[in-house]
UniProtKB/TrEMBL annotation:
<comment type="similarity">
    <text>Belongs to the OMP decarboxylase family. Type 2 subfamily.</text>
</comment>
<comment type="pathway">
    <text>Pyrimidine metabolism; UMP biosynthesis via de novo pathway; UMP from orotate: step 2/2.</text>
</comment>
<dbReference type="InterPro" id="IPR018089">
    <property type="entry name" value="OMPdecase_AS"/>
</dbReference>
<dbReference type="InterPro" id="IPR011060">
    <property type="entry name" value="RibuloseP-bd_barrel"/>
</dbReference>
<keyword id="KW-0210">Decarboxylase</keyword>
<dbReference type="Pfam" id="PF00215">
    <property type="entry name" value="OMPdecase"/>
</dbReference>
<dbReference type="GO" id="GO:0006207">
    <property type="term" value="P:'de novo' pyrimidine nucleobase biosynthetic process"/>
</dbReference>
<dbReference type="InterPro" id="IPR011995">
    <property type="entry name" value="OMPdecase_type-2"/>
</dbReference>
<feature type="domain" description="Orotidine 5'-phosphate decarboxylase">
    <location>
        <begin position="17"/>
        <end position="255"/>
    </location>
</feature>
<feature type="active site" description="Proton donor">
    <location>
        <position position="95"/>
    </location>
</feature>
<dbReference type="InterPro" id="IPR001754">
    <property type="entry name" value="OMPdeCOase_dom"/>
</dbReference>
<dbReference type="GO" id="GO:0044205">
    <property type="term" value="P:'de novo' UMP biosynthetic process"/>
</dbReference>
<dbReference type="GO" id="GO:0004590">
    <property type="term" value="F:orotidine-5'-phosphate decarboxylase activity"/>
</dbReference>
<dbReference type="InterPro" id="IPR013785">
    <property type="entry name" value="Aldolase_TIM"/>
</dbReference>
<keyword id="KW-0456">Lyase</keyword>
<keyword id="KW-0665">Pyrimidine biosynthesis</keyword>
<protein>
    <recommendedName>
        <fullName>Orotidine 5'-phosphate decarboxylase</fullName>
        <ecNumber>4.1.1.23</ecNumber>
    </recommendedName>
</protein>
Amino acid sequence: MRFTDTLQAASLRNDSTLCVGLDPEPAKFPGAWKGDAGKVFDFCARIVDATKDVVSAYKPQIAYFAAQRAEDQLEELMAYIRRVAPGVPVILDAKRGDIGATAEQYAREAFVRYQADAVTLSPFMGFDSIEPYMKHDGKGLILLCRTSNPGGSDLQAQVLANGDKLFEHIAKLAAGSWNRNGQLALVVGATFPAELARVRELAPTLPLLIPGIGAQGGDIEATVKAGWRANGPIIVSSSRAILYAGAGDDFAAAARQAALSTRAALNAAIAAVR
Ligand SMILES: O=c1ccn([C@@H]2O[C@H](COP(=O)(O)O)[C@@H](O)[C@H]2O)c(=O)[nH]1
């Protein structure tokens, strides 16, 4: 099944545009697990158990696993999600970008080793750095466009010779000539709703992965108003605000409550603009 179809089905089934980001930090683990990098899988698996009927997607960020020498636990987690939450797509947040030959290897890592449904990519090195991922039929390729961090403006807001800002140019390419097999989507931060609205204008039907609500302070209503369209899906991602909603043995229940209230806020905002 194509990433976009899996996403739509999960979104309908769970009545959700919420993506839970899986960014495990052992220093923030509860109780006896605190500081134990051997508990990365267990921690994330309990979060998945508690949220699998509330989300439209999961987004593990690979750095949190690699930094703990926990890539094997990420493989185990990907298999676990496929087993206990079949039909919920998994976006590997890796932000890869390299020459074609190396991109082939990164694509194998994302889609063969981890069997992700989609991967985040930096478009900075151009189309030939994205093309190798397109050999993996139906997988989602989510290009950084207007990132959620303040420093994203340093390059992404630069005006090009044709008058477009760089992020506008990326949105046009992704909605146009680069999107050869309909696999492309864009990352746009919730922290910049005006730019999010501009990206939606330029790419009316592309799925938008939107990090920046929760710990980064992005506003849910402004995000939905700018980004959601009936035929333009949004995947609104929150990591720390869900994962660490509770610090005790009830951390998974607290994560579920945080996911439920975030989903409800997203759905209320969608109902208001529908
Ligand atoms: O522009 C971007 C692109 C990716 N991210 C990633 O999303 C999560 C955000 O975590 P929170 O705890 O919800 O702030 C994290 O994995 C980032 O690497 C982003 O924040 N902004």
